[in-house]
Design a protein that fits this description.
By secondary structure, the chain is an alpha/beta fold. The chain contains 9 helices and 7 strands. It has a single domain (40-239), classed as Vaccinia Virus protein VP39 (Rossmann fold). The chain has helices at residues 14-27, 38-42, 58-66, 79-92, 104-111, 143-150, 164-175, 199-206, 227-239; strands at residues 48-52, 71-75, 97-100, 117-123, 151-161, 180-181, 212-218. The model is unreliable at 222-241 (pLDDT under 50).
Length: 241
């Protein structure tokens, strides 16, 4: 299987090491090749937003702190990032975040059943800019079809990248994915004001990197409406979160 990441050795700070040791028992969900009831780990059945590749976890923690009514499941392979998010959880006293330290593809294939998530966030994934590496890009078919199957009806997928070529590539792949619809006429979406600007994004903006926002909604044949009316329903579902 072609991976969308390459594991690199990253140094963890003392604080991250301590947070990892102290928080892994309560906040890490062990990977298992079996369907999992994520609500059991949160202790409730509130809507779950999946974030794939949360990096150092600032945006994840910030969004979760603003929306305690939702649950957030972060999937990340880099232990330094897991340690940093556990540090954020500890210092913000958050209770609505859980983490799986594993490959997101295998998590979605084996642990998550159909319609498991109310939303999926993919913020600034590795663009794999060289053409020969495009096969490693995460947001492409058939993986986008797997993502769509794990979303609830009217759930949304929100991707952000500062690499224009990847933005165009992902827009085409998501647009061709059965079960996903673009409420912005097939184009890029406006920025959501609830999405925090990270240090990584600020560096890109300082270098005049254009930010591409992609927003797609899970639609099913059971939806009674289409067009502008349906778009209003979708936007309402998002903004009440």
């Amino acid at each position: 299987m072609i991976k969308s990441f390459v594991l690199r050795s990253g140094r963890m700070s003392r604080a991250q090491i301590r947070s990892y040791k102290n928080g892994k028992e309560n906040f890490l969900i062990p990977y298992s090749p079996e369907l999992t009831d994520f609500g059991r780990y949160f202790g409730n059945q509130r809507p779950v937003t999946l974030e794939i590749g949360f990096g150092m976890g600032f945006a994840t923690a910030e969004i979760a702190s603003r929306h305690p009514e939702n649950n957030y499941l972060g999937v990340e392979v880099f232990r330094a990032g897991v340690g940093k998010l556990l540090w954020e959880i500890e210092n913000r006293n958050l209770r609505n975040i859980r983490i799986i330290e594993h490959d997101a593809v295998e998590v979605l294939e084996n642990m998550a059943g159909p319609e498991s998530f109310a939303a999926v966030h993919i913020f600034f994934p590795d663009p794999w800019p060289k053409k020969r590496h495009h096969k490693r890009r995460l947001v492409k078919r058939p993986f986008t079809g797997l993502l769509a199957s794990r979303l609830r009806s009217r759930g949304y997928l929100y991707m952000v990248t500062d690499w224009p070529d990847y933005g165009d590539f992902a827009l085409a792949e998501l647009g061709a994915t059965e079960g996903l619809e673009n409420p912005y006429g097939g184009g890029f979406a406006p920025r959501r004001d609830w999405r925090p600007v990270t240090k990584f994004e600020k560096k890109g903006l300082d270098k005049n990197h254009p930010i591409r926002e992609l927003y797609f909604v899970k639609s099913t044949v059971s939806n009674p409406t289409s067009g502008p009316t349906a778009m209003k329903l979708w936007m309402y579902e998002e903004f009440k979160k």
